[in-house]
Design goal:
This protein is α/β, with parallel strands linked by helices and about 450 residues long. About 35% of the residues lie in helices and about 25% in strands. The chain folds into three domains: about 1-45 and about 210-285 and about 390-435, 3-Layer(bba) Sandwich (FAD/NAD(P)-binding domain); about 100-200, Orthogonal Bundle (Guanine Nucleotide Dissociation Inhibitor, domain 1), CATH 1.10.405; about 290-385, Polyamine Oxidase, Chain A, domain 2. A hairpin with a 6-residue loop joins strand 15 (about 310) and strand 16.
Length: about 450
């Protein structure tokens, strides 16, 4: 059976949801298909023994305007919390915590005071970091042939300064340490979030499970917009029709469409392209991937103050308080997020427990006397594309060489790293191209 639609969106993640809503707003008849039984793509929750666990601790910044607008559109913004002013507690074993906090001064002066007080670096390292930040503000996003780490070394940054300051931002945003990440993308991140508008880097976190912030609200918003959503529907093949348009073949039926937006991970997207286009898609293999591992730990008491904290000189990178509001004082659920986690991907749950529970005790003194009631590991083998040098030239635009066939996803040429914001922006770009609103 073949069913006709103006636009078929393949993929129900943030990019696909955004594209489908835009196309529906533009007057198109839209069908969205998703192979999973839920929406949200890479941002989802699972349930283990009655506890909702997010697959990753996704954060966003005040400057993530497209993602924040999507949450407002679907009604998911009630499940997030945005800092009034950037503040990152930075823990170090055996030391007093430092606080990276912006002032009310305009950028870049808004970070000068907190950098001068940042005692996880020496005074000389702090002054050198300030000079490097001013120089990084002038680096273009086209500087993609070298690593951020090499550039920082050339600008007087010691290995400790890179680890204790620059990687605090590089790792969670680029999913790679500065030593491996593209200079162009790294410069973009620091410029966009920290060196431009003073308020841009204020951090937003998801207080409710991702399924309640994105998946459920998106399903309701798509229905209200008139989008037909088909879950558990795998797009097996895509064919061009004689005379124009496409047929999207599923396992049980076929969808006919004038335009198709492919909004799935890059390796799967390449497999759906028509033959000639697929052969030319260098990004299919060369974009690569970088993993994320999350450790979900439930203690019998409160061990972490505040919503989250970063860590230096520790295997822990970031730790978040994910305790459900309904628990009251019945314990605390914290999540440890490990970006660029190639080594951790190879470790068993037992090995991770043996390594990270003592590391948490070294950072959080209350954890030393607490009972661990649960320890769960979640892994994303290909959480993001690999943001290494050369990546800029590989990322494809929304338009392909086939009229009416568009691409969306955080891996496309948004200029942003692989973030929720990049995914939302890619959805807007693909929808604009599908509706002929991009000038192309």
């Amino acid at each position: 059976m073949t069913r006709a639609a103006g636009v078929v969106v393949i993929g129900g993640g943030v990019a696909g949801i955004t594209a489908a809503l835009d196309c529906a707003d533009g007057g198109a008849a839209v069908t969205l298909v998703e192979v999973r039984p839920r929406l949200g793509g890479a941002a989802y929750s699972i349930e283990r023994d009655g506890l909702a666990l997010d697959n990753g601790q996704h954060v966003f910044l005040r400057c993530c305007t497209a993602y924040r607008a999507l949450l407002a559109r679907i009604g998911g913004d009630g499940g997030v919390e945005l800092q009034r002013r950037l503040a990152i507690p930075v823990l170090r074993p055996g030391q007093q915590a430092a606080l990276l906090r912006r002032s009310r001064l305009p950028a870049p002066a808004h970070l000068a005071g907190t950098l001068l007080r940042y005692h996880h670096l020496s005074r000389r390292e702090r002054l050198a970091a300030g000079r490097a930040a001013l120089a990084l503000a002038r680096v273009g996003s086209d500087r993609d042939g070298e690593t951020l780490g090499a550039w920082l070394e050339q600008h007087g940054q010691s290995p400790r300064a890179i680890a204790n300051l620059w990687d605090l931002i590089a790792l969670p945003t680029l999913n790679l340490p500065a030593a491996e990440a593209s200079l162009g993308l790294g410069a973009f991140v620091f410029q966009q979030g920290l060196l431009g508008d003073a308020a841009a880097g204020d951090i937003g976190i998801h207080r409710a499970p991702l399924s309640d912030v994105i998946g459920g609200p998106a399903a309701r918003a798509l229905e209200l917009a008139g989008v037909e959503v088909r879950l558990r529907w795998r797009a097996a093949a895509l064919a061009q029709r004689t005379g124009g348009g496409f047929e999207v073949h599923g396992e049980r039926d076929t969808l006919s469409a004038e335009r198709v937006i492919i909004a799935v991970p890059h390796t799967r997207a390449a497999a759906l392209l028509p033959g000639g286009l697929r052969d030319a898609a260098r990004w299919a293999e060369q974009l690569g991937s970088s993993p994320i591992v999350n450790l979900h730990v439930v203690y019998d008491r409160k061990v972490l103050e505040g919503r989250f904290a970063a860590a230096v000189e520790s295997p822990v990178q970031y730790v978040f308080d994910r305790t459900p509001e309904s628990w009251g004082d019945a314990g605390q659920y914290i999540a440890v997020s490990l970006s660029g986690a190639r080594a951790e991907m190879r470790m068993s749950a037992g090995e991770l427990r043996e390594r990270y529970l003592p590391a948490l005790e070294a950072l959080l003194p209350r954890a030393a006397g607490a009972t661990v009631e649960r320890f769960v590991v979640t892994r994303e083998h290909a959480a993001t594309f690999r943001a290494a040098p050369g990546v800029r030239a590989l990322r494809p635009a929304a338009r392909t060489a086939v009229p009416g066939l568009l691409l969306a996803g955080a891996w496309t040429a948004t200029g942003w790293p692989a973030t929720l914001e990049g995914a939302a922006r890619s959805g807007h770009a693909a929808a604009a191209a599908a509706l002929g609103q991009d000038g192309g």
